[in-house]
Design goal:
Blueprint (H helix, E strand, L loop, with lengths): L4 E2 L4 E4 L2 E4 L3 E2 L9 E2 L31 E2 L3 E2 L6 E6 L5 E6 L6 E10 L7 E10 L5 E6 L12 E10 L8 E9 L4 H9 L2 H10 L3 H14 L4 H12 L16 H10 L3
Parallel strand pairs: 8-14
Antiparallel strand pairs: 1-4, 2-3, 4-5, 6-9, 7-8, 9-12, 10-11, 10-13, 13-14
Helix pairs in contact: 1-2, 2-3, 3-4, 3-5
Length: 267
């Protein structure tokens, strides 16, 4: 059976940046033309980050894959840029967390507005996200009670792990940036009319990384035995250089909710 997302990697040169971004998406008969994941170039300044945590130098367990943010990383001679787009006022982030209880006590996530360097504004902070018993993919959604993201403004996020084994040393962490964009009416209407699978393709084609990732992840949560969705997930992560994380278990904390929502949408 042919996957709905058929990988075809190529290289997009963005000045000093060179990043694999393209893979074809085979849609249903409703949208016959193939499309690609199109990652726009990031801002050239002010969005430095680290997608993967540095190797631990303390008594924490050795892991095959470090703490990793599931987001594009743009590499250049001026340093790495970790950045992705969303249409959401209150977006969802995904991370691979390689630790579990009891070594991992809890997780801390912060999203802040740094448009005024002299006064950084906290948009959302949760320093008591519960650790699980099994390593895997974890999703963190900014609640609607928090400030909405302002379009065209980069926001800085951090994820830190509170470990029982760090012995007061610097926490294990990753950081990057997210930016909200406003969609034109035509694209917004297309997304509203599309099925969840077609939405993944539309998000990918229009560079909305966080929305494509989260929609596809939730489809997998709802239908874990769907081999096409599994292949699509592998291809999407492979397109940003994270193929080795494609087989990690997804967060099931919202499984019941996602199944209910997708069934009501006719999936």
């Amino acid at each position: 059976m042919k996957s709905r997302i058929v990988k075809r990697l190529s290289s997009l040169s963005l000045g000093l940046l060179s990043y694999p971004v393209a893979f074809q998406i085979g849609l249903s008969a409703v949208m016959a033309a193939p499309m690609k994941l199109r990652l726009p170039p990031p801002p050239q300044r002010g969005i430095a980050g680290n997608r993967a945590a540095a190797a631990s130098r303390n008594a924490c367990p050795i892991v095959a894959q470090p703490l990793t943010a599931i987001v594009p990383e743009y590499r250049s001679t001026q340093g790495n840029r970790v950045w992705g787009l969303t249409k959401m006022e209150h977006p969802t982030f995904w991370f691979y967390v390689p630790y579990a209880k009891p070594a991992l006590v809890d997780i801390s996530f912060t999203l802040q507005d740094e448009s005024n360097p002299s006064e950084k504004k906290i948009v959302y902070r949760n320093s008591t996200i519960a650790a699980t018993l099994t390593p895997g993919m974890t999703q963190i959604t900014v609640p609607k009670s928090s400030l909405a993201l302002t379009p065209d403004r980069p926001y800085h996020w951090f994820l830190e792990l509170n470990m029982s084994c760090t012995n007061g040393q610097r926490p294990i962490f990753v950081q990057g940036w997210i930016q909200r964009v406003e969609l034109d009416r035509n694209l917004s209407n297309q997304i509203d009319r599309a099925t969840p699978t077609e939405q993944v393709a539309l998000y990918a084609e229009n560079g909305l990384w966080h929305d494509a990732l989260n929609t596809l992840a939730n489809l997998q949560i709802a239908k874990p035995q769907d081999s096409e969705l599994t292949q699509d997930w592998q291809n999407l992560l492979d397109a940003i250089g994270l193929k080795d994380l494609a087989d990690r278990p997804l967060d099931e904390n919202r499984r019941v909710e996602q199944v209910r929502q997708l069934k009501s949408a006719g999936f």
